[in-house]
Amino acid sequence: MRDADDIAELFAPFRPVGIRRMFGGLGIYAEGKMFALAVDGEVYLKTDAAFAEALGHLGSRPVAYARKDGRVVTLSYWLLPDAAYDEPDMLADLSARALSIAGARP
C-alpha cells in the first residue's frame, strides 16, 4: 500500500519529504535526515526511549527482523499509530518529534 506517492501524500500535512529505496524498504527524509521508514506497507518513526514509550501507549511497536542466525534485531523505529493516518495534526506532531530525534547528535 505504501509507495513513494502514498508516502508523500501521507506526510504532506507535515512537510514535503524525500524518499529513497533502502534495504527492501523506503527511507523517508526531511531536512536531509531520515526520520521515518516504510517496510512491508507500514510506516515507522525514528524514536528515542521516551518517544518509544509514548508510541507504545498509542498501540505502536518497534520494527524488528530476524537475522540469519535466528536472533531478532529491533530498530529504533516504531510503527506510526493508526490514528495518525486520519489526524493530520497528530501526524505532523509525531513526525516533528521523530525528525528532532533523527537530528540529535549522540
Global mean pLDDT: 92
How many helices? 3
Structural class: alpha+beta
Helix/strand order: HEEEEHEEH
Instruction: Outline the biggest β-sheet.
Output: 6 strands, antiparallel
Q: Tell me the strand percentage band.
A: 25-35%
Radius of gyration: 13 Å
Helix content: 25-40%
Strand order of the largest sheet: 1-2-3-4-6-5
Weakly predicted, low-confidence segments: none
| Quantity of strands, as a count | 6
Shape: globular
> Terminal Cα separation, in Å?
34 Å
Report on the architecture of this protein:
The protein is α+β, with helices and mostly antiparallel strands. The chain has 3 helices and 6 strands, in the order αββββαββα. A 6-stranded antiparallel β-sheet has the order 1-2-3-4-6-5. It is globular and about 40 Å long. The model has no long low-confidence stretch (mean pLDDT 92).
Helix and strand layout, with pairings?
Elements lengths: L3 H8 L6 E5 L2 E6 L2 E7 L2 E5 L2 H9 L4 E5 L5 E8 L8 H16 L3
Antiparallel strand pairs: 1-2, 2-3, 3-4, 4-6, 5-6
Q: What's the quick description here?
A:
This protein is an alpha+beta fold and 106 residues long. The chain contains 3 helices and 6 strands.
Descriptive terms for the model:
single chain; 106 residues; alpha+beta; six-stranded antiparallel beta sheet; 3 helices; 31% helix
